[in-house]
Amino acid sequence: MSRSAAVRALQERVAPVTLSREHTRPVPDPLAPLFAVGGLPQGQVIGFTGAGSWSIALALAGTALGEDGWLATVGVEDLGLLAAAEYGVRLDRLLLVTTPPADRLAATVAALTEAVDLVALAPHRTLGHSQARRLAATCRERGTNLLLLDGGRRWPLPTDLTITTTPERWEGIGQGHGHLQQRRLTVEAVGRRAAARVRRITVLAPGPGGGVAPAAPVALTPVADPPTDTLAPVADPLAGDSPVGASGSLLDTSVDTSVDTASVA
After folding, report:
1. Which are the contacts of 60, defined by CB distance < 8 A and separation ≥ 6?
2. Prior bond to 206 cis, omega within 30?
3. Is 193 helix (H, G, I), strand (E, B) or coil?
4. Residues 6 or more apart whose Cβ sits within 8 Å of residue 184
């Protein structure tokens, strides 16, 4: 092999490693404001926490993977396949891996990060620092995103981004009728480097037709001021001319200075 051919071969091997952090995956439009670069940076480790956070993770995965990407879940025992499909995840490109033995967890996740685009992990034990560093390095090199569904509590290193969800309410139920149609969520994202500034949005997940949708601002109902023309005037109790008695009636403070001459004898 000539020197120039060897250099080209080396460049082809190194380019995915050096450029993975510059590449982004598409995200649903309602979730784009959460990311400083407008998309999901490849190779990052992202924590998800809060009620409803799994819905946001599925929504991200459904759009980020597109038609050709693969998603693997590890230790996610309660994954709803119907919900995943409604968020756009292709079930024919979904790998479901049960919780591996404790001594095989890191090796299992490492093998998946080299084979698929997204790995969603619900760890049941804390990974060691050296294991986490190796996994993070593999993600950066391969451009794989590792989604930690416990918010990173069992991940000993800082996550690149943490997404926290706070449910506001479910909508669709009327006065004794209807069914749950959509859930309003407040979603907050904060991380390292370019993601250090807190970003906060409100979305519907699921939305009216499934998936994630933007949430309309909550309309505030104005409170009318009480009418003033029906209020009876009340005299100032500190005024000297017409003080108010305990019963609320005005006291007569006039003094009769006339003398009854008939009683003076």
Report:
1. 27, 28, 31, 40, 147
2. yes
3. helix
4. 167, 168, 169, 170, 171, 202, 203, 204, 215
Residue-wise pLDDT tens digits, 151-162 = 999 999 999 999
Task: Provide the b/e sequence for 249-258 (b: ≥16 CB within 10 Å).
Answer: eeeeeeeeee
pLDDT tops 70 at residue 254: no
Contact 105, 123 (CB under 8 A): yes
Q: From CA 126, how far away is CA 149, in angstroms rounded?
A: 13
**CA nearest neighbour of 211 among 39, 84, 96:** 84
Q: pTM higher than 0.85 for the full model?
A: no
Encoded tokens for 111: 């093998």
Instruction: Reduce the DSSP state of residue 81 to 3 states and report it.
Output: helix
What is the Cα–Cα distance from 65 to 89, expressed in whole angstroms? 8
Give the C-alpha separation, 115 to 72, whole Å.
Answer: 9
The angle subtended at Cα 185 by Cα 42 and Cα 171, nearest 5°, is 140
Q: What is the pLDDT of residues 119-150, one digit of tens each?
A: 999 988 899 999 999 999 999 999 999 999 99
